[in-house]
Structures are given as structure tokens and as C-alpha cells.
Design goal:
With 183 residues, the protein is an alpha+beta fold. It is 19% helix and 32% strand. The longest helix has 14 residues.
Length: 183
């Protein structure tokens, strides 16, 4: 009788590994304030100074090159924090009490690859889902596994991977991978 619980655990352990049909997934944070990164085009408005008001692209180093003050770090910052940084830089000897606004003029692209008709980089549209991203890429390819989509997203200094459903939100800079089926 003492061996019965041990036998039950021994027989059930291999079955526990079969309990899931999907690969292990990692947490991909779907919400939070939008932060600027390489490739974003921002519209900067300096009230009272039309010459400084213009659109600027965030460079590979995470900065925008702004007249008078040079490189200003905006990677990982919200638009309001970026506006405060620019205002602070302009107030340091260039303008008195500058009033600066920053807004996203064009989001950085998202990427899609795998079993879709046209893989590559595409323009991001706010509130995009995986389903819309697949449609943007021309739909599923003939060998697509319609039940397995993976999203890669940068969170802080690391790339995070998650197996997601079709209604999962896509953000600028994400890479969407549609797997192929094996049969």
C-alpha cells in the first residue's frame, strides 16, 4: 500500500508534460504609455518660435538633433518627458520660459515575417492587432499555422517573446512571426 502513491505519481508525471499543446510563452506587456525610440518621427512645436518648430526623426542613438541645443536624448521617454527635456535645454541660455510640445507625427514601423504573403516592414497604425498586421502583410501564406503567432517586443534592455492570439495589440517596433505548419 505504501508504494501506491509513488506509483500514481510516477505514472502521472509523463502525462503532465502533455497537458499543454502550445510552446511555453513569455510575458509580453500589452499596455503602458508609449515611449519614443529609433525611427519615430516627432513633431516639435516651440510656441512663439516658428523656426524651431519642425519634425525630427529619432536617430539610431535615441536622440533628436535639435537646433541650438544639439543632440537631445528621447529614447524610452514619453512625449511629455521629451518636451520637458527640450524646454530645459532651450531654457539653458537660448530662450526665456520656452513652451514646447512634442507629438508623434509618424510611428516607427513594425515587422512581420514567417508564413505570410508579404513579409517585411510596414507602417504602424494605432490600435493595431496581430490580425490587422497579418492582413497588412497580405494575409496568411499557404503553409501558415493559423494557431501559432509569436510577438517579439523590446521591454527595457531586453527582447521579450510571447505566443499570442490574433487580438493581441501590436506596437511600433514589434516583430510578428507567423509559424508554418508541419503537415
Amino acid at each position: 500500500m505504501r508504494w501506491l502513491p509513488i506509483l500514481a505519481v510516477t505514472l502521472m508525471l509523463p502525462l503532465a508534460a502533455c497537458a499543454t499543446t502550445r510552446p511555453a510563452s513569455y510575458f509580453v506587456e500589452p499596455s503602458g504609455p508609449y515611449t519614443l525610440d529609433t525611427g519615430d518621427l516627432v513633431r516639435v512645436t516651440v510656441y512663439g518660435d516658428q523656426e524651431l518648430s519642425n519634425s525630427y526623426r529619432v536617430g539610431d542613438n535615441g536622440t533628436i538633433s535639435f537646433p541650438l541645443v544639439g543632440q537631445v536624448q528621447v529614447r524610452g521617454q514619453t512625449t511629455s518627458v521629451a518636451a520637458n527635456r527640450l524646454a530645459g535645454a532651450l531654457a539653458n541660455g537660448y530662450l526665456r520660459n520656452p513652451n514646447v510640445a512634442v507629438e508623434v507625427a509618424q510611428y516607427r514601423p513594425f515587422f512581420i515575417q514567417g508564413a505570410v504573403r508579404t513579409s517585411g516592414q510596414f507602417a504602424y497604425v494605432p490600435n493595431m492587432t496581430v490580425r490587422a498586421a497579418i492582413s497588412t502583410a497580405g494575409g496568411y501564406g499557404e503553409t501558415a499555422n493559423r494557431n501559432n503567432v509569436t510577438v517579439y517586443r523590446r521591454q527595457g534592455n531586453e527582447m521579450v517573446r510571447g505566443d499570442v492570439d490574433l487580438d493581441f495589440p501590436v506596437y511600433p517596433g514589434d516583430t510578428v512571426v507567423v509559424s508554418e505548419r508541419w503537415f
